[in-house]
Amino acid sequence: MRTAVHFGAGNIGRGFVAQFLHESGYEVVFADVSEELIGALQKQPSYRVLEVGEGAQDRVVDGYRAINSKTHEADVIAEIANAEIVTTAVGARILQFVAPVIAKGLAARTRPEPLVVIACENAIGGTDILAAEVRKHDPADNAVFANCAIDRIVPEQSGGLDVTIESFFEWVVDRTPFAGATPEIHGVTWVDDLGPFIERKLFTVNTAHAAAAYHGIDRGWVSIREALATPELQAEIRAVLAETKELLVVKHGFDPDEQQAYIEKTLKRISNPHLPDTCERVGRSPLRKLSRHERFIGPAAELAERGLEVWNLLNAVGAALRFDVEEDAESVELQALLSGGAPADALAETITGLEPSHPLFPHVVEVIELRLAQ
Ligand SMILES: NC(=O)c1ccc[n+]([C@@H]2O[C@H](COP(=O)([O-])OP(=O)(O)OC[C@H]3O[C@@H](n4cnc5c(N)ncnc54)[C@H](O)[C@@H]3O)[C@@H](O)[C@H]2O)c1
Ligand SMILES: O=P(O)(O)OC[C@@H](O)[C@@H](O)[C@H](O)[C@H](O)CO
């Protein structure tokens, strides 16, 4: 049987990636550092993926195995040595930690064909980040690394292995590294130019989501749906999306009406009353979300380079700077940075990675100055 090793048995890992690999005929081997999750997967022979929305169907995932990659690294390496595909859904900043294990698996490879590696993270060039880390450990890697854009909302789950998930999905993978021989993976759309797809997704779905989370929590809302039901807040999110739309239309040539339809669908998806999602989950890891090529600074920088308006994106950045959630390590780090006494321009560089000569830089400094004055 064909084996797929999947790092990250969390929400999108179990609910989307592993389910599609399973449906494609792969035996899925989960690798995760959470003993609780791995123990549950080892004990329980199957779990359900419960879809919500148009055409919803419940699915069963079974026939998998699960390994704790922290305590049983050698077992994961042996699986990779013999696998056809490795996927990840661990978070973009965690890729550096799974890379050495993948590199050791590649070095121990028992199959002649290259290993297919796809990082399923919210990041532009997520697989490139992973590939660069793998190559630090195994420069002669025998692998095909392909970037992707993955879109399906999976809110925090209430416990157990079952996953409740929206029925909508989009998994777009770069075809170009495969030289015509793409692997058979159910539900994947293969494309020759991934850039427009990942930027449309990250700068619409994730920008809207994050802006709703930061403005929402700022005003005392717990859920994204409640926040978006407020006309004033909905108008602010629409204004943010009007800015990113301008970039997507100008840069990638998206039809303005099609982009508007994509925006309307996004707002409906993120307000789905049957898929309760919290501002805390969606706003998680604010330092990642405020970084240079991410959902706010990424589009704002490109708009500013074109002399276009970014006030609503900057306003959302201002709200993100107030994200103060004790359980979120990056939120704690962000608040510590902001209260550490550093000047606003130094903070702007540290938090966003923007170079001081960039046209957006002075505006970000202003937003930080306002935050420091609060
Ligand atoms: N949830 C969504 O709606 C959604 C949708 C699309 C993309 N994504 C992206 O998918 C990724 C995962 O998101 P999620 O919502 O499933 O998060 P999650 O927290 O539910 O799952 C992440 C999993 O990774 C595991 N992990 C952490 N460090 C690890 C390591 N070193 N090795 C192996 N496993 C490790 C964690 O234990 C956890 O089980 C993120 O990049 C996210 O942006 C999420
Ligand atoms: O996963 P993050 O932290 O990058 O972003 C939070 C949400 O916006 C995200 O998980 C969405 O639910 C998902 O990207 C939808 O496809």
UniProtKB/TrEMBL annotation:
Top-rank lineage group of the source organism: Bacteria
Keywords noted in UniProt: NAD, Oxidoreductase
EC code(s) of this entry: 1.1.1.17
Binding annotation for NAD(+): 4-15
Protein name per Swiss-Prot or TrEMBL: Mannitol-1-phosphate 5-dehydrogenase
The keyword NAD belongs to this UniProt entry's keyword annotation: yes
GO molecular function terms attached to this record: mannitol-1-phosphate 5-dehydrogenase activity
Pfam family, one: Mannitol_dh_C
PANTHER family reported in the protein's UniProt record: ALTRONATE OXIDOREDUCTASE-RELATED, MANNITOL-1-PHOSPHATE 5-DEHYDROGENASE
InterPro entries: 6-PGluconate_DH-like_C_sf, 6PGD_dom2, Mannitol_1_phos_5_DH, Mannitol_DH_C, Mannitol_DH_N, NAD(P)-bd_dom_sf
NCBIfam families in alphabetical order: PRK02318.2-5 (NF002652)
Swiss-Prot/TrEMBL catalytic activity: D-mannitol 1-phosphate + NAD(+) = beta-D-fructose 6-phosphate + NADH + H(+)
This protein's record includes keyword Kinase: no
Alphabetical list of HAMAP family matching this protein: Mannitol_dehydrog
Domain Mannitol dehydrogenase C-terminal: 193-334
Family according to the record: Belongs to the mannitol dehydrogenase family.
Domain Mannitol dehydrogenase N-terminal: 3-186
